[in-house]
C-alpha cells in the first residue's frame, strides 16, 4: 500500500507523538509499504527528503518558532497553514496513487477527512494528546477544536489511548473506535539493555549496594514538576538517592531546591543524556519517580516497566487505566509513604511481556490491519457496484 501520513510533529523532533509517527512509518516501510509524510517545515530542515525509505515533505511553516503552539497567533497561522496544505495536497494527489490516509494531529484531521471524501480514500485517525484525558477538562480552544474534530473529521477507524477518550469519541462519530497501545521502540530498548552494566552504572552515580536509587527522567520544566522529586527524596531516609536525567528551564530551580532541602550528597543531576544512556540509568535504578502535573502517554513510565524498574507516578493521562504490578499511582504527597512501604524488587533484563504490550510493533500492526481491512472493504464495494 501507499500511505499518506499527515502530522504536525514528526522526525527529527523527538517528542512522544513525533516519535510514534516516525517509528510507525519506519516499520511500515520495512514491511514493504510506501509512505509519504506531510509535516510542517522548520528552519534548518529540507523541504523534501527520504529517510529510512520514508518520503518526508515539508511544504510550509505553520508558525514562528518563538510562538507557543496554542497562542492565539499560532492558532491562526496553523489554521491558515492547514488550508494551504489542503490546496497543495489536492494538486499533489491529482497524478498519484494513494491507498490510504492517516491523520494524527488536531489541525490535520479536517484535511484528511476532506481528502478522503474527495478522492474516496480510506482514512484512519489517531487521537494522541487530548484535553479529554483530563477528568474535568475546562473549556478552551483546544477542547473546542477537538470536539469539532470528533464530530465532523474522524476516519472510518479511529484509534486513541484510553477507554475514557474512546467513550467520548464514540458519542460524536459513527466510525469504529478502539484503544491502541504502543510507544516503545523495541529495538532501541533491547540494544540498550544488551550493552548496559547495571553495577557499573550505579557505581558511576555514586550509589552503594545498600542504597535505593530513585531516578527522575524528563524535561526540567514546571509541568513535569522535577522539584517534586527532590521534595520526595527529602522526606525519605538517607539510604535513598536520586539521579535526575534531563535539562530545561527549571534546572537552576532544581539545583536550588537540592541545596534548600540539604540533600546535595544524595542527588546527582546528570543533565540531558542520549536515549540509550537514559535507558541504562533507568535500568540501573530501583524506581522511577514521575511527579508530573500533566501527561498524556508518558513514554518513560512504560520504558521503566519494561526495564523491570518500579514506577511511582501521579495519576496523569493514561496511567490510572494501566494495570501492572510494578506501577504505583498516587498523589505526590503519598509518594514517601508509598515508596517506603513498597517492597521494591528491580532486576536486570527485560520484561518481554510489557515490551510487547506497549511496543511500536503492536501499534503498527493495529494501524496496518485497519488500513488493510478498509482497503479490502473498498475493493469489495467497488466489485459489488460493477
UniProtKB/TrEMBL annotation:
Q: Which UniProt keywords apply?
A: Transferase
Instruction: Name the SUPFAM superfamilies on file.
Output: UDP-Glycosyltransferase/glycogen phosphorylase (SSF53756)
- Name the domain of life this protein comes from: Archaea
* Pfam families, per database record: Glycos_transf_1
Tell me the ranges covered by the Glycosyl transferase family domain, including all copies.
Answer: 197-321
Molecular function terms, GO-annotated: glycosyltransferase activity
Q: Which InterPro entries does the annotation name?
A: Glyco_trans_1 (IPR001296), Glycosyltransferase_grp1 (IPR050194)
State the name under which the record lists this protein.
Group 1 glycosyl transferase
Q: Which organism is it from?
A: Halococcus morrhuae DSM 1307
Amino acid at each position: 500500500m501507499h500511505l499518506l501520513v499527515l502530522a504536525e510533529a514528526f522526525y527529527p523532533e523527538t517528542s512522544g507523538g513525533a516519535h510514534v509517527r516516525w517509528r510507525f512509518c519506519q516499520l511500515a516501510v520495512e514491511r514493504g509499504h510506501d509512505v509519504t509524510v506531510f509535516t510542517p517545515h522548520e528552519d534548518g530542515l529540507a523541504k523534501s527528503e527520504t529517510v529510512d525509505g520514508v518520503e518526508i515533505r515539508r511544504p510550509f511553516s505553520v508558525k514562528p518558532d518563538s510562538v507557543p503552539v496554542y497562542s492565539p497567533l499560532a492558532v491562526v497561522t496553523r489554521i491558515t497553514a492547514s488550508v494551504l496544505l489542503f490546496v497543495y495536497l489536492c494538486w499533489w494527489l491529482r497524478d498519484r496513487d494513494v491507498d490510504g490516509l492517516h491523520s494524527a494531529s488536531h489541525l490535520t484531521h479536517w484535511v484528511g477527512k476532506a481528502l478522503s471524501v474527495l478522492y474516496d480514500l480510506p482514512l484512519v485517525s489517531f487521537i494522541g494528546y487530548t484535553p479529554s484525558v483530563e477528568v474535568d477538562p475546562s473549556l478552551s480552544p483546544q477542547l473546542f477544536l477537538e470536539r469539532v474534530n470528533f464530530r465532523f473529521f474522524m476516519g472510518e477507524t479511529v484509534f486513541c489511548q484510553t477507554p475514557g477518550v474512546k467513550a467520548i469519541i464514540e458519542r460524536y462519530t459513527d466510525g469504529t473506535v478502539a484503544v491502541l497501545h504502543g510507544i516503545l521502540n523495541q529495538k532501541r530498548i533491547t540494544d540498550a539493555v544488551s550493552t548496559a552494566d547495571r553495577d557499573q552504572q550505579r557505581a558511576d552515580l555514586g550509589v552503594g549496594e545498600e542504597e535505593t536509587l530513585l531516578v527522575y527522567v524528563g524535561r526540567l520544566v514546571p509541568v513535569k514538576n522535577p522539584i517534586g522529586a527532590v521534595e520526595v527524596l527529602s522526606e525519605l531516609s538517607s539510604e535513598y538517592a536520586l539521579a535526575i536525567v534531563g535539562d530545561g528551564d527549571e534546572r537552576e530551580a532544581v539545583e536550588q531546591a537540592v541545596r534548600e532541602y540539604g540533600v546535595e550528597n544524595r542527588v546527582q543531576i546528570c543533565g540531558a543524556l542520549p536515549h540509550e544512556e537514559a535507558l541504562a540509568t533507568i535500568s540501573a535504578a530501583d524506581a522511577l519517580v514521575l511527579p508530573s502535573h500533566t501527561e498524556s502517554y508518558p513514554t518513560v513510565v512504560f520504558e521503566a516497566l519494561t526495564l523491570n524498574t518500579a514506577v511511582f507516578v501521579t495519576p496523569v493521562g493514561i496511567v490510572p487505566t494501566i494495570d501492572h504490578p510494578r506501577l504505583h499511582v498516587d498523589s505526590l504527597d503519598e509518594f514517601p509513604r508509598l515508596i517506603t512501604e513498597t517492597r521494591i524488587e528491580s532486576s536486570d533484563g527485560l520484561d518481554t511481556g510489557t515490551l510487547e504490550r506497549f511496543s511500536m510493533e503492536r501499534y503498527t500492526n493495529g494501524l496496518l490491519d485497519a488500513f488493510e481491512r478498509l482497503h479490502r472493504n473498498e475493493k469489495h464495494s467497488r466489485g459489488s457496484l460493477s
